Amino acid sequence: MEPTSEQELKQLLEEGKITEEEYQELLEAIRQKEATQQPVEKPTESKPRTGYGKAALTLMTASIVLPVVAVLMALVLNAVGAKVGSKVLLVSVLPIGLSCTLLAFIFGIIGWKTTQGKIAAIGVPCLGLLIVPGFMILSLFYVRAKSTVAVEQQRAKIEELGARHLVSHKAYPLDSLDGVLAQDGIELDNVIFADGNGSLRFFTNSSEKTVVRLFETGPMGIDNRMLIYSAKVKSELDNGIAYLEMWCDIPGKGAFFSRGLAQPVSGSTNWTTVQTAFQLEAGQMPGNVKLNLVIEGVGTVWIDDIKLLSSPLN
Q1: For residues 77 and 85, is the Cβ–Cβ distance under 8 A?
Q2: DSSP string covering 200-230, please?
Q3: pTM, whole model, 2 decimals?
Q4: Number of domains present in the structure of the chain
Q5: Which structural domain, as residue segments, surrounds residue 16?
Q6: CATH number of the CATH domain containing 233
């Protein structure tokens, strides 16, 4: 039996079972055998930087959520009248969102070997392509929200005026064309009307602004009141809007107008009561009041039950 270790080999030498020369040969053989049996260390593989990948994905999510939440909260604050607060919110949060976007891209590149890193590194540039249309959509909602608030304020104002003691100064039932100033494009409609026996129908095939002159009152001995031009309007417009327009000629002051842009009609609508108001200060007695209908679009508009009213200022 051949010795398997240096200790066994040394014991054989001491017992005289092998010579010194045999001892050296066997010792060399044992050492070579042990050397060939040593495990080979494998090179360590670099582990993916999972921390950077997770951080990149978190930052990218924050860059999407923070601006959206900030804009929505700004809309709410603006709607309730806290305009300063909405501006401060946008100014403070939006730069944070942009910083999160930049850091998300950098960390995504560093942690590219992770799935989260790849998502962030690729997602951030794609997100950048959506920023412009995204802000356009948010701006559209913002403008629409402001328009809604303006309309509600106008309606509240009109309702408040209606709750006061209204005085009727002029009434035009439009059962005939008597007194109507416009001559072209306007007709009496005895089939479609809101009240009485007829209405005025006007058709235009031009998208340009068309002012239909209806009535002039002449001198009116009223001042220090809110003058209200009211009418019922129906529309069949392919595009554009229609609204009331009132001009007040104040002697020594000039001509002033009031347009019902807060209450326009558009598209296909049933009979709708619309109004526009003008505030007459003390001593401002109109020498003449002109009542018009303005159409900005193509289609047909009906108007009926025109009234000129007034309400106390206080």
Answers
A1: yes
A2: EEEEE---SEEEEEEEE-------SEEEEEE
A3: 0.51
A4: 3
A5: 6-35
A6: 2.60.120.260
